[in-house]
# Entry
Amino acid sequence: MIDRKDLLELISVPFKLEGLKPRFIRVSSAHISGISYNNIREEGLELLKEILSSGLRITVPTTINPGFCELEEQDCDKETYKKQLEIIETFKKLGAKPTLSCIPYLLGNIPKKGDHIAWAESNAVLYTNSVIGAWSNKESGLTALASAILGITSFYGVHLEEGRVPKVKVNFNFELSDEVDAGLAGFVLGKIVKDSIPFVSNSFKNRYDLIEFLASVGTSGVIPLVVIEGITPISVSKDYLNQIQSLSIGEEEINKAKSSLENLKSEEDAILMGCPHLSLKEVEDLLKLNRKRDKDIFVFVPKEVKAVAEKKYSKELKDKNIKLVSDSCILWGGIVSRNYSKVVTNSVKGAYYLRNVLKVEVGIRRKSEIMDV
# Structure
C-alpha cells in the first residue's frame, strides 16, 4: 500500500543525495508525462492502480501528456488500446484532467508568472520557465504525480532565485531562419551547456520556432530554463553577461547535429508534424501554405484543436492531405499499426525520439520543404 509518506520520500530524493534536510514549497498545478502504454507498460499501469486503490487523490489542477493511441480511431492493436484507455481512466479517477497534450501552457493548464508548479514533459517545463516565468524543475512523470497528490514539490533548483541566474552566454553565429534551424540550435545548446542555465539573444522568427528550440533543448539536455533576452522575465545586466563564460554555435555544429539525427535512406512512408503539438494558429498557418505532394501528412494536435480545425477547415485539410491526430504524439501507435519504417518530420525532438524509441528511419525537412513553398 502506497501512502503520502512514500510520496514525500520520493520528492525528497534531491536533498537526500546531497545529505541535506528536505524543504518544500506549495504548487499551484502539475503536469504529468509518461502516460503512454508504450512507455510505462504493465508495470506502470499496476503502479497507478496501486496508488488509486490506496485512496490517494490529486489535490491541485493537473493535466496529462499524450498517450500511444488516438482514442476515437483506435489505431493500436486491441490489447494496447485497452491498456492505454485503462491508464487514462485511472488518471481521471485520481483527479487529473485528461487533456492528452504536451502543450498545457497554451491550452488546458496555463500558469501565471511567478507560479510554483510541478511539471514533467521537458518542452512544457522549458516554455513555462523561459517564456511565462512560472517556476518548475524538470520533474519525472512519477515525481510530478507525487506533487500533484501532495500539493508540494522540493524547494530547490529553479524554484530558487539563485537557481534562475544564467551562468553561460550562448551566441548563434548563423541565422535561425526557421523551425529546423531553431530546433537544431536547441539540440546543440542542450548538450554543450550541461547543467548551466544559459542566456541567449532573441533570434526567433515566431512562437513556433521558439517552441521547437525549447523542445530540442529539453531533448538533448537537463536544464529546465533558458533565459532569452526580451522574453524571459529575468533581468540580467550587460556587465554581468560580460563576466560569464561565452560559447558559440555555428553552422558546422548545426550540420553535424542534423547528420547525427537523420538516417533515412529512401522515400518516406509518411510525414509527421506536431512535436510538440500544434496550436490552432499553427494549424491555420500550415493551411495557408501551398502543397503539391499527395502523400499524407499526420499532424499531432490537442483534441480541442482537432475538433475546431476539422469543423472549420475540412476542405482545406482534405485538399492538402493533412490528417489531424489527437490524444497521441509523434511516438504514435499508428506508425506501428501501419507498418511505417521510414518517416519525415520537421521536428528535431521528434526525429530524435522516432529514431531512438520507435526505431524507424528518419529524415528532417523544413515546413517549407514539406509544403512545397
About this structure: The mean pLDDT is 96.
